[in-house]
Amino acid sequence: MNELKELMRENVAAPPPDHLDLDALLEAGHRRVRGRRTALVGGISLVAVGAVAAAVVGLGGGSSPKATADTRPEPEAPTIRLSDASPAVEGTDFQVLASHTNQNLDRANGQYFDGVTDDGLILYRDGPRGPDNFDRWGLLDPATNDVDWLPDPGLGGNQAFPIVLGADRLVLATMEGGLEGNLVAHVFDRGSRQWYTVSWPDLPQVGFPSAALGPDGRLYVVTPATQGKPPPGGWPTD
Amino acid sequence: MRRDPAADAAFTEFAAANRARLRGTAYLLCGDWHRASDHVQEGLLRMYVAWPRLLRQGGELAYARKAVVSAFLDARRKRSSSERPTSAPADQASGEDIASAVADRDALMAALARLPERQRACVVLRYFEELDVRETAAALGCSEGTVKSQTSRALASLRAMFEDASRDELVVAGEGSLPW
What we know:
Number of helices of chain A: 2
Oligomer: heterodimer
Largest sheet of chain B: none
Shape of chain A: extended
Strand content of chain A: 25-35%
Number of helices of chain B: 7
Strand order of the largest sheet of chain A: 3-4-5-6
Radius of gyration of chain B: 18 Å
Structural class of chain A: alpha+beta
Helix content of chain B: over 70%
Order of helices and strands of chain A: EHHEEEEEEEEEEE
Number of domains of chain A: 2
Order of helices and strands of chain B: HHHHHHHE
Number of strands of chain B: 1
């Protein structure tokens, strides 16, 4: 008679030597984390370049350090240095963290990856679905494919755009009242798992989607200085 | 990224303490010690990314186990070839009883290799890692009902394969108390 557990234990009882180098493992872990953060910071900085134009609104951040005449000026932006680079691998242009294919967008409106958090989770959007046509949001761990579904952010069916995907908080932006409405930031505190909203009723009309978090913890948005309007009597037809 | 020496030290300590156990699990899943080492390394790397969160929330070993199983399943999806069971070291196979014991162990590895990956994972997690149905479902990211049905099918297949190979009957200790 053969007992399954015993046979399994016997099969692993005399393994060959393990050559796993823990120091090398730690280094590789650092590189993997740094690679994810660098990719995210690069994405944010690209958006910020176009958005610094007109308006700055506070999002609970501090003030930016000012360079004085006797100090070396530091860039007020996310900065990528050569020391952040990891060795290239020929034939490998990028690393796939996770993938998902929507097989039938007609049956249900699919699932989408909406960015990577600073601690390596993927913001996962499921929907819109159900009679109320709402999105469901979660954080997917690419190591296990587990989705941690977040409480309902109460977006009311508005389309949301992720702005901040931090280890401590997430920020999604919506326009309430349509594309000419008011900007609302929906902030998810990952520690307390609570959503709250921040809005700026006095803010001039905001071009959307254009919000980006600056290095000073403020949200930078574009407010058009001039806008074309139809002349009295309408646009000329000749 | 700023390094956190205390967190790194805790991670290294965890990896050193658990890598042998994780490697055994990976070996039973893939049937190859070198590939098992690769799966453990990949699993630990994935774990390192989540390490600050795990230090806050706990559940490090469960996460590591899950990451190694995921690394195995991901690697299987990428591979077109299937694993083959490895032979036991030659210096262990001497004498009729030992030869028979080695043959039984080989028969198990061959039978495991012929199971679908998720059935194999169910068997390894349930009977080697000794996880219960709920823990196995959590490790595989599936329902408890799926774990029960996959395990039941896997055990039936393993028994049939032992019978076909003219090996002694394969039994599971305490099977009478299993929830199916």
